[in-house]
Design a protein that fits this description.
- With about 230 residues, this protein is of the alpha/beta class.
- About 30% of the residues lie in helices and about 20% in strands.
- Strands 1-2-3-4-5-6-7-8 form an 8-stranded mixed β-barrel.
């Protein structure tokens, strides 16, 4: 299962991406508050979801990318960011009909940790515990599963943080490396970098800057058998 992550509007990036890669995505990964690109989805959630549906990839995964210095912070900072993030995801869910939770009732939510950023166990626990315990009131479900986007082989704490015995459960890793590039129709064979303690379920194998794509999208692939969104 292969799809896109992008900071742009789906309605704007889909057509040029379709022309470049000659294939429809299976899913989209989108930014929610407190992220710098959150207004793209939150200002027009219906339009974004309609764009995903029309693209042939009617599945949307959720990313939170706060100011990177916050990831080294306290549990209180992680909790505050999680409250904002979960409210934004739930607002989109209730604003768009019929937007549904995944059939397996597991919406993987990705905390964005870039290469040179340190993730503290305090911030992670504050964020992940709140995300995992967030209830979608009208369906009486707890569908959000905290996960981490990172470069597993970075020397800055990421795998070692989520692998601690006192760390809240991380359900999956989305690896940013390596970047062999490729396309939706011809993705590379699965060989994402990985953490020892948490399975890598998503792989950003093609980043537009590194791979020279003209479209405003990065290419991602779910691990074999994994429902990425």
């Amino acid at each position: 299962m292969v799809g896109y992550d992008t900071a742009g509007k789906i309605q704007d990036v889909y057509s040029p991406a379709r022309a470049e890669f000659n294939e429809d995505p299976n899913f989209w990964l989108r930014y929610f508050a407190p992220s710098p690109y959150a207004d793209v989805v939150e200002s027009d959630p219906t339009g974004e979801c309609a764009g995903a549906w029309s693209s042939g990839g009617p599945r949307i995964g959720a990313i939170m990318a706060p100011g990177q210095s916050r990831l080294a912070g306290s549990a209180a900072e992680g909790l505050a960011d999680a409250e904002t993030f979960c409210a934004a995801v739930y607002s989109t869910y209730t604003s768009v009909g019929p937007l549904q939770t995944p059939v397996n009732r597991m919406l993987y939510c990705w905390l964005d940790q870039e290469y040179a950023t340190t993730l503290s166990v305090g911030y992670w626990n504050g964020w992940a515990n709140y995300v995992a315990g967030y209830k979608f009131a009208n369906v009486k479900e707890y569908p959000l599963y905290p996960c981490l986007y990172c470069d597993p082989y970075s020397p800055y704490p990421n795998c070692s943080t989520i692998g601690r015995s006192d760390a809240a459960t991380c359900h999956a890793v989305w690896s940013s490396e390596p970047e062999p590039c490729g396309s939706l129709a011809r993705p590379p064979s699965w060989h994402a970098d990985f953490c020892g303690s948490v399975p890598t379920r998503l792989w950003q194998f093609g980043e537009q800057g590194a791979c020279g794509y003209s479209s405003d999208v990065d290419l991602d692939m779910g691990a074999p058998g994994f429902n990425a969104a």
